[in-house]
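Please check this protein record:
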Amino acid sequence: AATDIAGLVLDTAKSRNDWPRGWKIEVSLNGTEWDKPVLEGKSETNVTEFLLPKPVKASFIRITDTGEVK
């Protein structure tokens, strides 16, 4: 069932030095059709808070790593 999502937390602390340096978040009601990214950004630490600009209704959330480590 779809749920209103206002944000989420990604905690990769148990995976040392492994977190998404850049990311985008997309949501879907059916897991097949995805909306345009509701949020995009960069992370500096292994705990990232994703606070959406406004709540969205979703059944599925997809976080895509768009960053790189040099």
Notes: The beta strands are 3-11, 22-28, 39-42, 47-58, 60-65.
